[in-house]
Structure formats: structure tokens, C-alpha cells
Specification:
Number of helices: 10
CATH superfamily of the largest domain: GntR ligand-binding domain-like
GO molecular function: DNA binding; DNA-binding transcription factor activity
Radius of gyration: 18 Å
Strand order of the largest sheet: 1-3-2
CATH class of the largest domain: Mainly Alpha
Protein name: GntR family transcriptional regulator
Shape: globular
CATH topology of the largest domain: Four Helix Bundle (Hemerythrin (Met), subunit A)
Keywords: DNA-binding, Transcription, Transcription regulation
Number of strands: 3
Number of domains: 2
Order of helices and strands: HEHHEEHHHHHHH
Length: about 250
């Protein structure tokens, strides 16, 4: 797994983002890029020190992540990055298949030249990341490709569910992937875009089924990954820490 000291964090989407939003995005990115391993303890004190914010802000960000089921909050024991069991992993993949097939069908219906251009640029970024050996960024962009498809589908409930299952899938891959392959091939992503452009929902759905088969086929649901350290993961995130606030 890559250290954040070697990666640039995703740019803040808006200057109106609150400190809660910024902390949430950094932790979400670290999970999506597999820099935070399943089972990692998310100490409020350590995260508050890392980001230079109050524990109240950290607590709100962790609660938001728990709603997406990528963080588990245990009574009187604190928060940890979720570590799906083998049975849970299979259930999550089954749920992802349902939502992905609905998303791709709607994406065919609602795609615009602008949305296709935007997502194709993302696929190129993904390819460039893997080509330069930046696996963490490549994994994040792979996940964001699927989130962008949900944006293209123009269905907010599906987008929210997609965000949760994509990040949970990243946790599963961190635990169970065989070797260090890219779990979402950018070649397959490009083929999916071509299917969307063709306007044929049956073709697009068939290709998405095949794509998800390839992702799941790279997993060995017997092995588990080691955990990591919060200070290492976030060592390069906040160069100038904001003042503490509540």
C-alpha cells in the first residue's frame, strides 16, 4: 500500500467545505486508496492531532463514515476501519452487482457528451496512475469511475448507495485481493464507455456483469491484510494544520 507522503490528496471540491467535510474526504480517500487497512483503529485523539481539529469534528466525520459502513463504531471501544468477513464480502458484492447494473442502464439513458468527456478523462488519469506505479491513486480513480457512472445515471439514491458499496468493495480488495493487480481494468472501463455511447443498454449491462466478474475473480476469500498506522497514512495530508475549532 502507498503512503500518503507519496500521494497528493484529492483537491477540495469547494472553498465552502467545512472542516468536517475535509477530514471526512481525507479519511474516505485513504480507505478508497487502500492506505487505511481493514481493522485499523481510528483514534479520535490521534486524528485530531494529525488534522489539527477538535475531537468533536473527528467524531462527526467518523459517524458519517459509519453510515456508509466503511467505519465501525464500537460502544466504549472507539472506531475502526470496517473489516468485512468472507460472508459479508460476498453479500457486498451481491449488492454491488444489483446497483451497478441499475446504474449502467440509467447511464446509457442519461449520458451526455459532457459527462462522457469528463469520465473518459478520468479513465486516462487512471491509466496514467497505474503506468507510473501509483497504485493508490489508480485504485481511487478506479472506484471514482464507478461513482461517476452513478452521477451520469442521474439518480441520487443510487449514487449514495454506490458510494457505500464501492468503498466497502475497496476494503474487501485490501483484505482479499491476490497479488497487487489493478482491480478495475482501465481497458474495461473504456469498453464500458463505448457501450454507453452505443446507446445499447443490454450490451452495457452484459459488459458490466463481465467487469464485476473480473473484479471478484481476483479475490481469495481466505486471506487477510495487515493493519497500518494513522500517522504514516496521513503523514503528508496537512502541511499547515488549521486552528482547532468545535
Amino acid at each position: 500500500m502507498s503512503s500518503l507522503s507519496q500521494l497528493e490528496p484529492r483537491p477540495v471540491k469547494s472553498s465552502s467545505n467545512t472542516q468536517d467535510d475535509i477530514v471526512y474526504e481525507h479519511i474516505f480517500d485513504a480507505i478508497l486508496e487502500q492506505r487505511l487497512a481493514p481493522g485499523t483503529k481510528l483514534s479520535e485523539e490521534a486524528l485530531g492531532e494529525i488534522f489539527g481539529v477538535s475531537r468533536t469534528i473527528i467524531r462527526r466525520a467518523l459517524l458519517r463514515l459509519s453510515h456508509e459502513q466503511v467505519v465501525s463504531i464500537r460502544p466504549n471501544r472507539g472506531a475502526v476501519v470496517a473489516a468485512p468477513s468472507v460472508d459479508e464480502a460476498r453479500q457486498i458484492f451481491a449488492a454491488r452487482r444489483v446497483v451497478e447494473l441499475a446504474v449502467i442502464e440509467l447511464a446509457v439513458k442519461n449520458a451526455t457528451p459532457e459527462s462522457l468527456q469528463r469520465i473518459r478523462a478520468m479513465v486516462q488519469e487512471e491509466q496514467d496512475a497505474f503506468a507510473r506505479g501509483d497504485r493508490g491513486s489508480g485504485i481511487r480513480l478506479s472506484g471514482e469511475f464507478h461513482l461517476e457512472l452513478a452521477h451520469m445515471a442521474n439518480n441520487t439514491p443510487l449514487l449514495n448507495f454506490q458510494r457505500s458499496v464501492v468503498s466497502q468493495t475497496s476494503l474487501i480488495i485490501a483484505q482479499y485481493e491476490v497479488g497487487h493487480q489493478a482491480h478495475c481494468s482501465f481497458n474495461e472501463h473504456e469498453a464500458l464507455l463505448q457501450a454507453i455511447e452505443s446507446g445499447d443498454p443490454k450490451q452495457a449491462v452484459a459488459m458490466m456483469k463481465e467487469h464485476l466478474d473480473h473484479i471478484e475473480g481476483k479475490l481469495n476469500l481466505d486471506n487477510e491484510a495487515a493493519s497500518t498506522d494513522l500517522h504514516v497514512v496521513f503523514s503528508g495530508v496537512v502541511k499547515k494544520k488549521p486552528g482547532r475549532s468545535r
